[in-house]
Amino acid sequence: MSPKHIVFKKISKDKSVGVYMGKRDFVDHVDSVDPVDGVLLVDPEQLKGKKAYATLSCTFRYGGDDMDVLGIAFRREIYVSTRQIYPPLQDKEQGILTKVQDKLLRKLGVNAYPFFFELPDNLPCSVGLQPAPKDVGKHCAVEFEVKAFCAESQDAKVRKRSSVRLMIRKVQYAPESLGLAPCVETTRDFLMSDKPLHMEASLQKQTYYHGEPINVRVKINNDSNKNVRNIIISVEQIANVVLYSSDSYMKAVAIEDSGDSVDSGAKLDKVYTLLPLLANNRERRGIALDGKLKHEDTNLASSSIIKEGVLKEVLGIMVSYRIVVKLIVGGIMGSSEVGVELPFQLMHPKPDTVKESELEDEMVFEEFKRTYLKGMAEDEDEGNVSPGEH
């Protein structure tokens, strides 16, 4: 049986404009980004001589619109592009259509018009920082949105009843080429000890998938006169928020406090298993999460892969991961620490692509709804809003 051909749609309250899109996730392949395309359906009677526009925006937001931080709600548009869709500036036949657009135009009729946006390759992916359980309103996040509206002109005031907003995602998947498996070692000399302590830590591969256990091999050769009292292994998530300033959030998202010891003159060769999951971190504020849509659950944020030469300052929220192996070493003067770090990637595998020829000819239309991270409230749909307000 062929997979269903799902099309996501959303219609404005006054029925003047509606947006239809064949997908909600747009992939950043590092060297290129999937174009954002869809179809805008207009009702000329409801438009009453107004024009119809489509806008694609990438916004960095910190706090709700009513949040008062020194009187300022932090919100910055990283990227915005607006195009007039109706009346069309060129004939439909002149543009190059995707197969989904072509099917939609034939199905929706003469009042349907295609739109197409190219995303720059220097934009961040959809990611947000998890709010605390009692927090409400919008929180720190990078969001992508397609908005359609009708107005006298592009800069005129827009009634929310005459506009529609669709959240989409920009995502990255694990690279097909496998990097070198991380391995690191260190040697520590101690005062009044003739011989050192040597430790080596390694992973089986560089990239792990969400929900996949991570095996960390730890080798210790303790020729010193100190005793290793404990071995602690953790997965740390580092979220760098880089826009106006550079803030870094480091959170341990999985910890193995082994209690293992290595006496003076002894050796150890052991594999520890860690499993970083959002399920074990849901109540913790500041954990970076992948952006989510509709009523789907999300997961810990995927590692950010940056195109070479792109300025990090424009990337919003960048996420990376590392394994930290820490030895607690005892001595006469108190304990000390010996530690190493193993950077790795945590990502989703690239999904199997379904060829458009394999999809059912009959389209299944699904309402395009927005969801929020736990504790986020929905926007009101009444009142006036300018095109720049999303």
UniProtKB/TrEMBL annotation:
According to the UniProt entry, its GO molecular function terms are: G protein-coupled receptor binding
Where is it found, in Gene Ontology cellular component terms?
photoreceptor inner segment; photoreceptor outer segment
What residue stretches are annotated with the Arrestin C-terminal-like domain?
Answer: 193-351
Q: Entry's SMART domains?
A: Arrestin_C
| InterPro entries from the UniProt entry | Arrestin, Arrestin-like_C, Arrestin-like_N, Arrestin_C-like, Arrestin_CS, Arrestin_N, Ig_E-set
A matching Pfam family: Arrestin_N
Q: Which GO terms describe its biological process?
A: G protein-coupled receptor internalization; nervous system development; signal transduction
Q: Which family does it belong to?
A: Belongs to the arrestin family.
* Protein name (Swiss-Prot/TrEMBL): S-arrestin
Q: Which source organism does the UniProt entry give?
A: Cyprinus carpio carpio
